[in-house]
Design brief:
Helices cover 55% and strands 10% of the residues. By secondary structure, it is of the alpha+beta class. The protein folds into 2 domains: 152 residues, 60s Ribosomal Protein L30, Chain: A, CATH 3.30.1330; 243 residues, 2-methylcitrate dehydratase PrpD (Orthogonal Bundle), CATH 1.10.4100. The strands form 2 sheets. The chain has a 6-stranded mixed sheet. A hairpin with a 2-residue loop joins β6 and β7. α11 runs antiparallel to α12 and α13 runs antiparallel to α14. The termini are far apart.
Length: 429
């Protein structure tokens, strides 16, 4: 069996802001730290998927600045690399002004890095004759290279194969359920604290999204439209957290699989259900373990960044957690996962932005429908489409299509976002 404890502690980490721009900020802060002085120029190289998930997102604690250049400049002039994915927590007005001035002066250059990992960021900081660079790849906080004036400052950095070794080997629906059932929270203080932090922090940002107009206010729209609907309330709070986060809210969340939206989707439906139904903390923790691990399982098979919207897998995982809270067994929980993936699996990721909240709402609506269908013994027939004989087979079928079949889709989404109907630069002239 996998060491699920270590996996949870690795994947459930606090982050401030959407994780792609925050990863850029962290990378820039690392480069600035290595340079040892204020840079005159920044050159930021990003993979297509990082570009896709950054260009429309407001960077927190920057006074409303958005995009790749804003994230890099903020990390460089006001970031604290020691804080990891909370790198922009201590931004000052002076740092914001310096970052904005650098961007306005044209000192920040952004380039599309091709032929690299889906999650790839390299920041080169230059001052006079000195140059420092930092690279993050494979995971949002995984620094793979540090160089100063051409000298390798990180000789023991992992190679990319190590990131790929992070696969879903050993994961299964039954082993996750068994682990959650047997977990002794009194003996696992660190993990217990992390689960409680997810429950507390993610609820706070959801509450922020419900109380104020952030983004497209999807969460508020849901409760205004269906004020007495408990299903709508579950969807609304998860969507509201995304409303706030995508619009630059400075409150942290505990993420899942490198994503704040996924971290909120796996947790907030369970948190709201527990509030409404009087579920005790111990039982909520076990449900969160199930939901988080199911999402990690699915995402490790798909890959961290793809054209397959990550909140779909997170919603399926949340459905599993809700099913467990309602006393369902392994086969029923598997059915909820399968039905959700097979229904919502066509939702595309066209970057992190305000519409993520709507995708969370739609995916959770399908998860709740899957839950009700399962209660009534109404299952999708195995062997039809991507539906396997077991939930594990369905997960692998869907993941294969998402990982391999949607590569070209991912490329087309990125090109359309960057260039619209205009000819690509290499095709021009």
């Amino acid at each position: 069996m996998n060491d699920y404890r270590e996996i949870l502690l690795k994947e459930m980490v606090p982050a401030l802001g959407c994780t792609e721009p925050i990863a850029i900020a962290l990378c820039a802060a690392k480069a600035r730290e290595l340079l040892g002085k204020e840079p005159e120029r920044l050159h930021i190289y990003c993979s297509g998927n990082v570009i896709k998930n950054t260009q429309s997102v407001v960077v927190p604690n920057t006074g409303g600045m958005a995009g790749i250049a804003a994230a890099g400049a903020a990390g460089c002039f006001g970031g604290n690399a020691a804080l990891g994915l909370e790198v922009l927590t201590s931004m000052t007005p002076q740092a914001i002004a310096r970052a904005a001035a650098c961007i306005d002066a044209g000192c920040v250059q952004v380039s599309h890095a091709k032929g690299v990992d889906n999650l790839y960021i390299r920041v080169v900081a230059t001052a006079g004759d000195d140059q420092a660079e930092a690279t993050i790849a494979g995971a949002h906080n995984r620094v793979t290279a540090l160089k100063k004036n051409g000298q390798d400052m990180m000789p023991t950095a992992d190679d990319m194969a190590a990131a790929q070794a992070d696969a879903a080997e050993g994961f299964s629906v039954d082993s996750i359920l068994a682990y959650a059932k047997a977990l002794d929270f009194d003996a696992e203080a660190e993990l217990t604290a992390r689960l409680d932090k997810q429950a507390d922090d993610n609820y706070v940002i959801a509450r922020e999204g419900m109380d104020n107009d952030w983004g497209a206010s999807v969460g508020r729209t849901l409760v205004e439209t269906y004020p007495d609907d408990s299903r709508a309330r579950i969807r609304a709070y998860a969507a509201a957290g995304s409303d706030a986060r995508m619009a630059g809210c400075s409150r942290p969340v505990v993420i899942n699989s490198g994503s704040g939206n996924q971290g909120m989707t796996v947790s907030l439906p369970l948190i709201i259900y527990a509030q409404d139904m009087g579920v005790d903390r111990d039982r909520l923790r076990r449900a969160l373990v199930i939901s988080n691990l199911m999402a990690i399982y699915i995402k490790r098979l798909i890959g961290k960044l793809s054209a397959f919207c990550g909140v779909v897998s997170a919603a399926a995982a949340a459905g599993a957690g809700l099913a467990w809270l309602q006393g369902m067994g392994e086969e029923q929980i598997g059915s909820v996962i399968s039905n959700t993936l097979l229904t919502s699996g066509g939702i595309l990721c066209d970057g992190a932005k305000a519409s993520c909240a709507t995708k969370i709402s739609v995916s959770l609506d399908n998860a709740l429908l899957a839950l009700e269908m399962t209660k009534r013994g109404r299952l999708l027939p195995e062997g039809q489409g991507l539906c396997g004989r077991t939930a594990d087979e369905t997960i692998r079928n869907v993941a294969r299509v998402a990982r391999e079949g949607m590569k070209e889709t991912d490329d087309q989404i990125l090109e359309t976002m960057l260039y619209g109907c205009a000819p690509r630069p290499e095709a021009a002239g």
